[in-house]
Specification:
two-stranded antiparallel ribbon, about 450 residues, mainly alpha
Length: about 450
């Protein structure tokens, strides 16, 4: 019996046997309350300790965020496990991802899924539409200026250089010139109207009476007159020989030359009358109308085609680049580029052909990727440096952000661990009570 109860018992007013009974009942009640605490305290204590121990352990993964010091000594377990090993954690995460998840085979499989023809075609079409909208919305004429510069460089520098190189070949433009000759020159014939206009131009502009008079004067030199007179005397016979030897041609030709020199206007009028009386215009028109290379012998046509080809090729070799450069300088490329851009903006053919263009480009890209996808992925992995990106991203993330991200991902799992600690502590407390009862 406890000493305190004995002391209390002696102080009670009850004496003898009643005092002993009263003390026995009091001791029994005290023992019942003590046994109840033995049954309930260990499980409750174990549950509380297990719950808060796991909660503290989880928080110690991230906290404290920084190293704590007492004087010059660092407190143990500061900073938390993850902040203290953030560098190693970043490297391990990167190695795990690159070694197990983003392997070259997985990247190739991912690239094939991303670069399916349907997706590629849609992407290319979107890019083409975006480019077309950008051209339409271009208010600063940047596109026109860019196209103008390209055309100017093309005709001013690139094409002349290319022409100089290609012109050195023996078969340069051979098939093209032959095709032009066979399809255009060989079948070319003047219409009635064209023959009339050309004959009028020849008689009025190319060979007017004054020009004919000048040509006649230039032709009737003393030497030419002498040759004509002697030839006429020697090679004629009969009546013409009598006329040639009695009268001669020299005197008549000299008088004709003098007449053309002294009487210009009269000579021109006479020549004009002669042209009209001889119907030179009609004869010339009829001759031009019947003019065609098909009327020539086949050997002559072949030789003419060969001569034409060589003449064109030699001209291009010698002066083609110069002519092309000169042509490029005379063209207003800014205006040409603007006209081309305006035409493209309003062209229905451009819009309707976007599907076809995107489809063809997607097929070309697919054929290329089928052959070189593995090489491209092997080259892309070092260039992308995915592991370094992961490491740098984890390094740059603060411990607070790491904790928030982790809890945001597995908040329920972390709470389940805390609850499990409480449950395990409660079970251990029950085991302790069971052992106590067994003993």
């Amino acid at each position: 019996m406890p000493a305190a109860l004995v002391t209390i018992g002696w102080a009670l007013p009850v004496r003898g046997r009643d005092r002993e009974n009263y003390l026995q009942k009091t001791v029994a009640k005290t023992l019942d309350l003590t046994s109840l605490w033995i049954y309930f305290v260990p499980p409750l204590t174990g549950a509380v300790i297990g719950y808060f121990t796991n909660d503290i352990a989880i928080k110690m993964l991230f906290r404290p965020y920084k190293t704590l010091y007492i004087g010059q000594r660092r407190l143990p377990f500061t900073p938390g496990v993850i902040p203290a090993n953030q560098e190693r954690l970043a490297q391990n995460v990167a190695n795990t991802i690159m070694g197990s998840l983003l392997t070259p085979g997985e990247l190739q499989h991912l690239a094939r899924r991303l670069l399916q023809p349907e997706r590629v075609q849609g992407g290319i079409r979107w890019l083409l539409l975006a480019a077309l909208k950008q051209v339409r919305a271009d208010r600063g004429q940047k596109t026109a200026k860019l196209l103008s510069g390209i055309l100017r460089d093309l005709f001013g520098e690139s094409l002349p250089r290319l022409l100089r190189v290609l012109a050195r070949r023996e078969d340069f433009l051979e098939s093209q010139i032959n095709q032009i000759f066979d399809r255009i020159l060989l079948e070319f014939e003047l219409s009635e109207q064209q023959a009339k206009q050309l004959s009028d131009w020849i008689l009025q502009v190319a060979l007017p009476p004054d020009l004919l008079r000048g040509a006649l004067i230039d032709f009737l030199t003393d030497r030419n007159i002498q040759i004509i007179d002697e030839g006429f005397r020697e090679k004629t016979s009969g009546t013409y020989w009598v006329v040639a030897n009695l009268f001669g041609m020299k005197n008549a030709l000299l008088r004709l030359r003098t007449f053309c020199l002294d009487e210009k206007e009269v000579a021109n009028a006479r020549l004009q009358e002669l042209i009209l009386s001889l119907e030179v215009r009609d004869r010339l028109r009829s001759w031009l109308r019947e003019l065609s290379l098909q009327n020539l012998p086949l050997s002559t046509v072949r030789q003419l085609r060969k001569t034409t080809r060589e003449t064109v090729r030699n001209y291009i070799q010698s002066r083609g680049a110069e002519v092309l450069q000169g042509l490029g300088k005379t063209i207003d490329w800014d205006n040409v580029a603007q006209l081309a851009i305006n035409r493209l903006q309003s062209s229905i053919a451009v819009t309707s052909s976007l599907d076809l263009i995107s489809s063809e480009l997607a097929l070309v890209l697919e054929r290329y990727l089928e052959e070189d996808l593995e090489k491209l992925v092997e080259r892309a992995i070092p260039i992308l440096s995915i592991d370094e990106v992961i490491v740098e991203k984890i390094r740059a993330t603060s411990p607070e952000q790491l904790e928030a991200a982790t809890q945001g991902i597995i908040r329920n799992e972390l709470q389940a661990i805390v609850n499990l600690g409480g449950i395990l502590g409660f079970i251990i407390g029950l085991l302790q009570v069971g052992l106590f009862l067994i003993r």
